[in-house]
Amino acid sequence: MVPVIKEEHFSQEQIFAILERIGYPFKHANVLPEPTLDTLRELHYRCVTSIPFELLSLRATKSRTVEIELDAIYDRVVNRRRGGWCFSLNKLAFELLRGLGFTTQYTLARMCKPRQPDDPISFRGLTHRVTIIRFAEDNNSKYVFDIGFGASSFYPLKLEEGFEVEFFGHRRRMVKAFHNLEEPHILGHSGEEYWQVQEFMGMEDKDKGGREKWTPCYAFTERQYYAIDCEINNYWSSCSPKSTFYGQFWVFQGTLDGKYNLLMNKSFKIRDSNGTVMSIDIETEDQRQNILKEFFGIEFTEAEWEHFDIKIE
C-alpha cells in the first residue's frame, strides 16, 4: 500500500501572523488581502525588507542544516524572528501566497552569477528555489516571487522577455537564454531555453558613450519539481564542501528605503544603487554580534553560542 503523504499548509491564524511579522499594511483589520498584482508587489517588498537571508543555521545549530519542514520554518521566521535561505523562505512564501488565493507553482533554478565580477558565467546545480505566480485573468501572465536570493529584488519580475523592474535605483530584468546549447544535440534534442534573472551593474566605457552592464543571477524553466528535489538540494547546499555556503557567515537584508545591509564573514557593508555607502572591517566577535543586533535584530541564544563554530578569536 502506497503511504499517504500529508500536505503542509498554513492555517489562517498563521497567515495573519506572517503578515504581521513582515509589517504588511492591512487595508481592513482582520481581513486578508486579495490575490492581486498590487498585493503581490507589496508582499515581496515587505518580505525582503523584514526577513533576512541568513546562514546562521549552518553555523550555530547542532544539525548544521537548514530545516525546511513548514512548522520549523514558521517557528524560525515568525516566533524567533530569524530568516533563512531560498529553500525555507521561498517555501514560506509559496504557502503564504497559496493561502491568500494566488495560483502558485514552485520550481528550481540554476545559479549562474559569477562569484567575482570578472569571472566567466557558469551554470551550477539546481540549488535555488523560486515561486511562480500566474494571473489567469491577465492573459495568464506569470511572475517570479523570490525572497531567498540574498540581495533579492524588492519586487517580483514578470516572465516576459526584456521585462525590467527598478526599485530605489536598483534594476533587475528578465531575459531568455540558452543553457549548454550544443550538448543536447548529442541525443538529438535542441538547446533548452531558460528564463534568466539579471542584475544591472552600471555603465561600461562611459568615455565612449557608455554601455549597460548586466550580470546573470540565476536561470530557470517552468518545470514542476517536488518536495524531495528540494530536500536533496537543501541538504547538499547545507553540507557539501563544494557548496557556495559551506563555512560562510552571511546575513543579508533589504531596508525600507532601498538599501541592502550585507554581513559577510568579517565584513559589513550598506549598499545602495550607487554602490557602498558604509563599510566596516570586523575585528572581534563582539563587534560582529553588535552588528547582528543593530542591523538585523538578531541576538544569539545560549544554545546557538554553544554550537557556534566560527567565532572570531
Pick out its properties.
313 residues, alpha+beta, Arylamine N-acetyltransferase fold, eight-stranded antiparallel β-sheet, five-stranded antiparallel β-sheet, 26% helix, Arylamine_NAT_domain_sf, Arylamine_N-AcTrfase, Arylamine N-acetyltransferase
- Counting DSSP E segments of at least 2 residues, the number of strands comes to 13
Give the helix level as a range of percent: 25-40%
Q: Give the ordered list of helices and strands.
A: HHEHHHEEEEEEEEHEEEEHH
Shape assignment: globular
Structural class: alpha+beta
Q: What is the name of the CATH class?
A: Alpha Beta
The CATH topology, please? Arylamine N-acetyltransferase fold
Question: Can you tell me the residue ranges where pLDDT is under 50 for at least 5 consecutive residues?
Answer: none
**CATH 2nd-level architecture:** 2-Layer Sandwich
**How many distinct folded domains?**
1
Mean pLDDT: 91
The number of helices is 8
Proportion of strand residues: 25-35%
Topology:
Blueprint: H1 12-21, H2 37-48, E1 53-54, H3 56-59, H4 70-79, H5 86-99, E2 103-111, E3 128-135, E4 141-145, E5 157-158, E6 164-167, E7 170-179, E8 192-204, E9 211-220, H6 227-239, E10 250-254, E11 260-264, E12 267-272, E13 275-281, H7 285-296, H8 302-307
Antiparallel strand pairs: 1-10, 2-3, 2-9, 3-4, 4-5, 6-7, 7-8, 8-9, 10-11, 11-12, 12-13
What does this entry look like structurally?
This is Arylamine N-acetyltransferase. It comes from Entomortierella parvispora. With about 325 residues, the protein is of the alpha+beta class. It has a single domain (about 10-305), classed as Arylamine N-acetyltransferase fold (2-Layer Sandwich). Helix content is about 25%, strand content about 25%. The chain has helices spanning about 10-20, 35-50, 55-60, 70-80, 85-100, 225-240, 285-295, 300-305; strands spanning about 55, 105-110, 130-135, 140-145, 155-160, 165, 170-180, 190-205, 210-220, 250-255, 260-265, 265-270, 275-280. An 8-stranded antiparallel sheet has the order 5-4-3-2-9-8-7-6, covered by helices on one side. Strands 1-10-11-12-13 form a 5-stranded antiparallel sheet, covered by helices on one side. A hairpin with a 5-residue loop joins β3 (about 130-135) and β4 (about 140-145). α4 packs across α5. The model has no long low-confidence stretch (mean pLDDT about 90).
